[in-house]
Amino acid sequence: MKKVIYIIALLLGAMTMAQTITVNGTPMLVSDDISFPFWLESGSSISPEVPVSSISVLEFNIVPNNNGNDMVFNQVISVTEGQTVPEGKTWKVESILMENQEFVLDSSNTSLDSAFVASMIAEALSSGSQNINYQPNIFLECVDMGVSVMCGGFGLSGSASLSIDPQSMSYPISVSSNSENGVYENPQWRKFQIHNLNINANEQIMFRNNREGGNPSSPITGNITLITPEVDDDGNVYFYLYAYCSGNCCDDECNSQSNLLMTIPESHSITSRYTGYYCSYNSGFTWNNWEIFYSEDGSWKNTGIYFNTN
User: Fold this and answer.
1) I want to staple 277 with a disulfide (CB 3.0 to 4.6 A). Which of 22, 126, 249, 298 is the partner?
2) pLDDT tens digit sequence for 42-80
3) Do residues 30 and 147 both lie within one domain?
4) Nearest-CA neighbor of 306 among 295, 293, 291?
5) What would the pLDDT profile of 283-292 be if each residue is shown by its tens digit?
6) CA angle (287, 292, 297) in 5-degree steps
7) Cross-strand partners of 293
8) Are the C-beta atoms of 218 and 274 separated by less than 8 Å?
């Protein structure tokens, strides 16, 4: 019954407001049910429909690097007619501007509109409207953590927590392989579940973060990485973050990248911290200010998830 009410609300909103934009040939109702901002990849199309007069867009250049891609701001665009995202670019759709125009439902067409609504509800229900790709209340939870199977010891300290630190909005992940009496203070990897994200097993999700560190310092803002998350038979979505050490002066190399990826699945994992301990110099990177996006109708939409991994 709730799904029917939701469909009615969308249809009535479309008839009375008629505030739509077209994305990749599909009209999308501009209402509280559409979350701004959302993302469009290269080749995607977008256009305003009356009474929407323009669409505000931030354009970014996608620049490849050794770890994936960098996203570099290019310009602000006001889309007033149909446009296509150029090759090598991505668009962040921020908002719309409405014309100074009022639309009223014609009472003479009430019976026709009612019939239209009824037919659309019937069609939606008959085609399985329970599968509408509506994404409510998406949130993140750390569900597991640990150290490399090659590090041995007695596991994690009782002070290690699955919960986020509310002050720093951070899930600690440590690159250290040192332990006190065989017990590790912080995990070297964490497993996360994205609750209420409805995607298929072969779909990708996008991570945006800031990279800090290097020797010399080489920070990157808006770093982009795509992975295919782990999706179980019940549709639950998981991914892993880990920290590793590389170099001839690491403590014992038990937490090298290859050893950690013997512990967690490589295809569903992303590095959150890397430290290079070499006898002549040290270097390392930390990735923070994490945001997560999912793909829908040819665009990237923000889940609203934000966290750190200090």
Assistant:
1) 249
2) 999 999 988 888 888 888 888 887 767 777 878 888 899
3) no
4) 291
5) 788 899 999 9
6) 145
7) 206, 302
8) no
Number of domains, the chain: 2
The per-residue pLDDT for 108 is 40
Residue 84, CA distances (Å) to 42, 52, 89 in order: 8, 18, 10
Please tell me whether residues 147 and 119 are part of one structural domain.
Answer: no
Residue 199 half-sphere exposure toward CB, CA atoms < 13 A: 26
Does 26 score more than 80 pLDDT? yes
pLDDT exceeds 80 at position 310: no
pLDDT (average), residues 81-110: 70
d(CA 144, CA 99): 50
* Burial profile 94-127: b = 16 or more Cβ within 10 angstroms, e = fewer: eebeeeeeeeeeeeeeeeebeeebeeebeebeee
Give the residue from 71, 39, 60, 64 showing the smallest Cα distance to 223: 71
Are both 124 and 177 inside the same structural domain? no
**By the 8 A CB rule, do 185 and 157 touch?**
yes
- Domain limits at 85? 2-131
228 and 121, same domain (yes or no)? no
Residues 30 and 95 in one domain: yes
Q: How many CB atoms lie within 10 A of CB 279?
A: 8
The two structure tokens encoding residue 252 = 């014992």
- Pick from 144-153, 215-224, 249-258: least confident: 249-258
Q: Which of 131, 149, 173 is where one domain is finished?
A: 131
Q: Are 292 and 205 in contact (CB under 8 A)?
A: yes
